[in-house]
Design a protein that fits this description.
Rossmann fold, 2 domains, about 15% strand, 13 strands, alpha/beta
Amino acid sequence: MTVQLKIIHLCPDDKFIDNAINMFEDVFPRSNFVCVYTKGQPGKYVKNRIDYHVGVKDVIFGIKTAEIMDASVVVVHSLSSAWYRTLEKLNKDIPIVWLGWGSDYYDIIDSHGNNLLDKTTVLEHKLQSGNRKGIKGYLQLLFDSALRKVKVIERINYFSPVIPNEYATLKSARKWKSFPMQADWNYSPSKQELSDYINVHDVAGDMGRDILIGNSATSSNNHLEAFDIINKIKVSDRRLVVPLSYGNMIYGREIKNIGESFFGRNFDALIDYMPIDMYMEKIAHCGFVIMNHVRQQAVGNIIIMLYMGAKVFLRDDNPTYKYFKGLGLTIFSIQELERDKYHLESRLTSDEVMENRKILDRVWSQRVLTEKTRILIETIAN
């Protein structure tokens, strides 16, 4: 008699979840049970399926559904304090897979906040000083203690970071009693094949001259320093597209105000959440991309923009830059741009665009990601 596979997913209410669950369901149909932390309310970003709405009581006491008690494997999509009690109470024989997002482990890798550049650090301190935590904030600190998080990680069996070289970085960041084994799995950067985005933008020359800056309303984008670079280059006739609909809205409003004061009508702040098709249409006119993160972030955006033929600039101290360079992708450092402003005038050659697409397909095509999903679960559950 074959035992029915039961994959429990612990998920935030986030735009990345639908694609991930679809991938697992394609490979293991009718085997997935999706728990989403919605505080008991309808989901805002997860649209396709929620089998269990996780509320505050579940955070405090742990999820007690029959499905989780009888799981074959538990998959944690971003490790937040919402899942600590559930994982602490879980039967030790049930394997746990942690699919990292970066934001859920960079507090350990960079405990001193070195991901922010000087001007952004000053702005962040200013915004934090005016934002009192209140009772809810202190309760969150109680449930999200650093020591508790370490113990939860030591219970986890497998960990897949966003980029492979982050595994060793996190493992060596502190002493662990035990540490998860490395797993190889990636979120899809989009809801469709990457090649679907090049029907119109088939060569680099088809993309516009707009400049995409950052990916969210989070201080790790180091927007202020990116604006300084643009100001020094004196790019006065180019539209700057700045996504700010995702993250810290207080920070986002501040960046919008500063950007508009610097660049006037050329500054296009994307404040309101928009459907993926509208967002893709907006950024498809950006032939140049500046991501000023010190830490790994915005990998999905970077992949899509490279595939469409954009010229991408990352900081050379960003692990994503090193990883992409190691894959053989044609990307550039922000430090190169600071030395030579004409990088914003020249595009990638057609050969460079085509080679980038071949490399990206080897790692992030739907076929490859589907196979990684099959190997991940079959290896763990058998």
